From TrEMBL:
InterPro entries: Peptidase_M8 (IPR001577). This is Leishmanolysin-like peptidase. The active site is at residue 302. Zn(2+) binds at residues 301, 305. It comes from the Eukaryota. One of its GO terms (biological process) is proteolysis. Its cofactor is Zn(2+). GO terms for molecular function: metal ion binding; metalloendopeptidase activity.
Length: 334
């Protein structure tokens, strides 16, 4: 994957074009440091609870917490799959093609190997909203509906543990949630959701280039994609695949507690460990006009987690030749 920051705030600071790359690199580094810091802080749950309580004290300050690590920990519980693997077909890199031909073709003066960067194209993120409002045990449809948040014990509502948006009592997962008016994704909220996610997909198209999938993106649909019950992939995505896509995001609008605005997780990877499908949840409570800027920033942050900025995904990172970065026989590749 190639990260190309073009039109973000950090790059705009650059006065001369040749400095742009330096600024972009600084920007990426800052992003990485922030994510690593976040991962480190998230390991101490007490600290996070303190932060949430502190943030709730500041009534007019808009803030959000990231529960990504908590989600990943939940996915590692026995009997749960972190993600499934579906092999994809990619165009053969031009570098290999020209190398193969060199041995057989004697007079090949006219053909010049294409520039390596030509192999990469802006990432195509396909957004699917089919699941919005269609999960009866998890989506708020009416005020007073009791829905599942996380995986509370017992098959049906038992009253305990119960939770609410105020975080009082301070229960932030695996509980029965009592829906309020703000938790229902009406027409306005659905419109804001689409707008924000389309902007996010657009941001990534400008910032990130990948080796494009050749033909349809193939998904396995082996189990529900994502977290907290996840989302079932449409059958045609599995049987025929998804055209013009490098990453499919299945969107839900299920409630969250505390100040968690949205969360996201990868659910399928290709044979090289690249994320090809993920689940993004945005809490209807935060789909307001006031939270628009914060929402955009949060969604970019969340999709970055899907794409691999996740301490648990670092082991899947590959170098240019798709060799695992931290495998033992590094010497043979220099
Ligand atoms: C849910 O909240 C409403 C409003 O606060 C309340 O009247 C109702 O009893 C609650 N339902 C449950 C099952 O606790």
């Amino acid at each position: 994957m190639e990260l190309r920051i073009r039109r973000n705030r950090c790059a705009e600071v650059a006065l001369l074009p040749r400095f742009e790359l330096n600024f972009a690199l600084v920007c990426v580094k800052v992003l990485l440091v922030l994510l690593i810091l976040e991962a480190a802080l998230a390991t101490t749950k007490e600290f996070r609870l303190q932060v949430q309580v502190l943030e709730q004290d500041k009534e007019n300050t808009v803030s959000h917490s990231c529960i990504h690590d908590q989600i990943i920990e939940q996915r590692k519980r026995p009997g749960r799959k972190v993600y499934s693997v579906s092999a994809q077909v990619y165009a053969e890199p031009d570098v290999f093609k020209s190398r193969q031909r060199r041995g057989r073709v004697l007079l090949d003066v006219s053909e010049r190997p294409k520039r390596h960067t030509d192999a990469k194209q802006p990432i195509r993120i396909y957004l699917n909203y089919d699941a919005v409002g269609h999960s009866s045990d998890r989506d708020c449809r009416n005020v007073g509906d009791i829905v599942k948040l996380g995986e509370p014990t017992g098959a049906s509502y038992s009253g305990k543990p119960s939770c609410n948006p105020q975080g009082d009592p301070p229960i932030f997962g695996d509980c029965w949630y009592n829906c309020t008016q703000d938790d229902i994704a009406g027409v306005d909220k659905k419109h804001r959701l689409r707008k924000a996610l389309e902007q996010t997909a657009d941001w990534f198209r400008r910032a990130l280039s990948v080796e494009p999938v050749r033909g349809n993106l193939r998904l396995s649909g082996y189990s529900a994609c994502g977290q907290d019950g996840g989302v079932q992939l449409p059958r045609e995505y599995v049987e025929e695949g998804v055209a013009n896509a490098d990453l499919v995001l299945l969107v839900t609008t299920r409630p969250t507690t505390g100040n968690t605005l949205a969360w996201a997780v990868a659910c399928e990877r290709d044979q090289w460990g690249r994320a090809i499908a993920g689940h993004v949840n945005v809490a209807p409570r935060h789909l307001t006009a006031e939270a628009e800027t914060l929402l955009s920033a949060t969604l970019i942050h969340e999709v970055t987690h899907v794409l691999g900025f996740d301490p648990h995904a670092f082991a899947h990172f590959r170098d240019e030749r798709k060799k695992k970065a931290n495998s033992g026989d590094r010497t043979s590749y220099g």
